[in-house]
Amino acid sequence: MFGVALTEYIRVVQAHPDRLWSPIDLRVYYWGGTTARHSHRVYDLDFRLGSLGLPFTYTPFALAVFTVLSYVDELTLQWLIACGSIAALVASAWVAWGLAGYRRSVGRLGAALTVAGLALWTEPMMQNLAFGQVNVFLMLLVLLDFAQPDRWWSKGVGIGLAAGFKLVPAIFIVYLLVTRRFRAAAVATGTLAATVLGGFVLLPAEAHRYWLDGLFADSSRVGGVNYVGNQSLQGMLARTLGLDAAGVKPYWLLAAVLAAAIAIPLSVRAHRRGEELLGVAATALLGLLASPISWSHHWIWIAVFLSVAGHLLHSRRAPWWAWLPAVGLYLPWLAWPSVAYGDRKPAGPGTRLPNGLIWTVPYDNNAENTWTGLQLLVGNLYPLLGVLLLAGLGLFLWRTRSSRTPGHPSPRLTGTARDAHDLVP
């Protein structure tokens, strides 16, 4: 299945490279890295794309990484990021099945490739590849960290590095704390602190602007909160209530607290039952929902959610009809062949391309604030699905008993058992 999905993806991209592989975000990263080699004003400048100005919004640590990568020519870097993203997607699915307790086997490889093939044709993954984003790499770092036994000194490094690159993965430090893995939480926090200090050493002026002048908390640099691409609770509330960033903040904070009050106990319960993958998934959902900005490509965690669904249905030998709800939840994430609203022209219908459903509603110029009825449902699809997934996970954890204890594997694709340390990929 993965081979078919990848072949078809390459065919479609080759037919429309200007729309499906024009990595504007990677160009901003590359520009930021190149600029940092010659200037100390990256955060004061914009990458110009016609009349559009795009600022560099990542951490100084990320800027230092892109400064190194800027020594590679831009086209080569584009290919490396694209091929690496697809490889990281497969690796993430493989590690996710390992977190669910499945041994290294042909069956696990087949399951990982199936999940990767399904995830490749979702809107979040398509957006990652089209923009040259790095979210799939950060997801893999987090998953690899949780695949390590708790006794390993290095557990927490991957989470710290991911959080040092983008702040949202720091939510997994909270997960480590509430599950009483204090050493790993300390390692993750120390690693994050090291990335901050490293930024001050390598790029002191930029680090001062980012951390001390408060740029890290300025969400306006990232984009408008009500833009359809922002699929967070804050984005959904801003569009639904017709509010700006300041007006929606109290409602968003309340919604974020409520999401945390639900997701954190669920993640703790999952961990205590020995279901690490479910705990990680609940924490990822919390991060996506509660973050002020969760662009649609941040929802690449759909690969983990697919693995969770496959694990729960397979391990309990669910009948074929029990898979239908999982299929129904998967379909809204697909990059359906359609004409995005922004591509529609009075003279014709426009070109049908793999687009997510969220792009079929009016957007830009605050058109999101005029949505009604079905438009509100489609335009807020990911946070609504995220809440539904969190509710479903909670229902499952509270209504079922676990046959596992922490550190002990669940039934696996080959039906055999092994020691917990073999969960490491």
What's this, in brief?
With 425 residues, the chain is mainly alpha-helical. The protein is built from 19 helices and four strands.
Describe this structure in words.
- There is one protein chain.
- With 425 residues, the protein is mainly alpha-helical.
- It has one domain (2-414).
- Helix content is 59%, strand content 3%.
- The chain has 19 helices and 4 strands.
- The strands form 2 sheets. It has a two-stranded antiparallel ribbon. Strands 3-4 form a two-stranded antiparallel sheet.
- A hairpin with a 2-residue loop joins strand 1 and strand 2.
- Helix 5 runs parallel beside helix 8 and helix 10 packs antiparallel against helix 11.
- The longest helix is centred in the middle third of the chain and has 28 residues, at 245-272.
- It is globular, with a radius of gyration of 21 Å.
- Residues 405-412 and 414-424 have low confidence and may be disordered.
